[in-house]
Amino acid sequence: MSKGSTPVTKNEIVDVIIEDLTHEGAGVAKIDGYALFIPKALPGEQAKVKVIKTNKGYGFARLLEVTKRSEDRVDAPPCPIFDQCGGCQLQHLSYEGQLKQKQKQVRDVLERIGKITDVFIHPTLGMNDPWRYRNKAQVPFADREGGLIAGFYKERSHEIIDMDSCLIQHEENDKIVQAVREVASKLGIKGYNEERHQGTLRHVVARYGVNTGQLMVVLVTRSRELPNKKELIEAIQEKVPHVTSIVQNINTKRTNVIFGDETIVLAGEEYIYDTIGDVKFAISARSFYQVNPEQTKVLYDQALKYAGLTGAETVIDAYCGIGTISLFLAQQAKHVYGVEIVPEAISDAKRNAELNHMDNVDFAVGEAEKVIPWWYAQGIRADVIVVDPPRKGCDEALLDTILKMKPKRVVYVSCNPATLARDLRILEDGGYKTVEVQPVDMFPHTNHCEAVARIELL
Ligand code: SAH
């Protein structure tokens, strides 16, 4: 067989040395400069691998045998479905190894994309017990012979695999999902069939306020109709007595987006409450709320520390969601302006300000890149700007306005080091200096990497 232009061919078995780990968690080996990506292989390891795909500049291989193992390898990842699920990518790497990897990822990307080298990147702040941390489960339901299954989509497929327990999920959420599966099966409620767009129950979303003990169950259904509704509610309440909110969300569309537009309260309250530090939040079915409450406190404390507030500052919180960071900052600022694109989130943010008797905050609905220039035109000047954008990072118009407004400090909370690096370059070219970056592990065992950067006006 001709090898073409690649040094290895499909199905070939080769011995390799793993040099690096991608941001997706795959090992990288180089053969005559040609990169092979090998899921579940770790840096420093030697391994026998089978080539499964070759592209022009890089290929993929399957790990057959580790011939020299990394000291950071975990031989038996604790989760029995780790290989099938795809929700976690790093359970085979020790937690210490994961934290180092995330610090390295931030350093590498800042250097490569942002050309930022003289900055202090702190060791990643991790969890003491990095399991059972998620406060929200979103579980797809389907029918099988004899009842319902509830689990996860097999990696890169629409096939649902039944699951009893997810080790990064809070036990309370596991219990709720199991309870709904059991009682709904008994009541003959049908799971959703994606292909035919039939059946009733699409997803169950469980949200737990870990600091208040309150629990919400969201039954996402294909139509308004929910057979045996009364019996279902009573059975859930009986099985999990501390459920404080049961709501139905109706999603009539053929889509893999979980929620539809309409939400109806079936029992209890429309909200659950949770606290982060001294601040209390009302959370509704569709509100964005950080999923790792313990680390959220760590992240927000870090953002607050980097903001360096004395009580005299005007602060802008861009991409503010339900106002979590805004209210955290408002405890130590003169005034905080929050802006967010989702109208419901801003209603929640206003309610949360009232709930905490904070009147030094204003919230606006809109795109940060439009609202902040408008504020600027109105004469509003911030001493500190905090941004916490989605993965795609900040819009350039927003960064331009920051450069015009010239706050003395910018605090950048990022869930994507690559866009962080890109945006830091723009700020640095405009007269700012990135002083330090603190990675915070919000998502242990997954490849997600969160970091907070402190950027000062020179
Ligand atoms: N700071 C919040 C939310 C961060 S998530 C927290 O910690 O909870 C990012 C938020 O940015 C989401 O709520 C999303 O709806 C919002 N968003 C996305 N694009 C936006 C834009 N162009 N302008 C303002 N907000 C935006």
UniProtKB/TrEMBL annotation:
- Tell me its EC number(s), please: 2.1.1.190
Name the PROSITE patterns on file.
SAM_MT_RNA_M5U, TRAM, TRMA_1
Q: Where is the active site?
A: 415
Membrane: is it a keyword of this entry? no
Positions annotated to bind S-adenosyl-L-methionine: 290, 319, 340, 388
Per its record, what are the GO molecular function terms? Answer: 4 iron, 4 sulfur cluster binding; rRNA (uridine-C5-)-methyltransferase activity
UniProt-listed SUPFAM superfamilies: Nucleic acid-binding proteins (SSF50249), S-adenosyl-L-methionine-dependent methyltransferases (SSF53335)
Is Flavoprotein there in the keyword field?
A: no
Q: Name one GO biological process term.
A: rRNA base methylation
Which enzyme type, at the first EC level?
Answer: transferase
Keywords, in A-Z order? 4Fe-4S, Iron, Iron-sulfur, Metal-binding, Methyltransferase, S-adenosyl-L-methionine, Transferase
Ranges for domain TRAM = 7-65
- InterPro entries per UniProt: MeTrfase_TrmA_AS, NA-bd_OB-fold, SAM-dependent_MTases_sf, TRAM_dom, U5_MeTrfase_fam
Family the UniProt entry places it in:
Belongs to the class I-like SAM-binding methyltransferase superfamily. RNA M5U methyltransferase family.
> What name goes with this protein?
23S rRNA (Uracil(1939)-C(5))-methyltransferase RlmD
**Natural source organism:** Anaerobacillus alkaliphilus
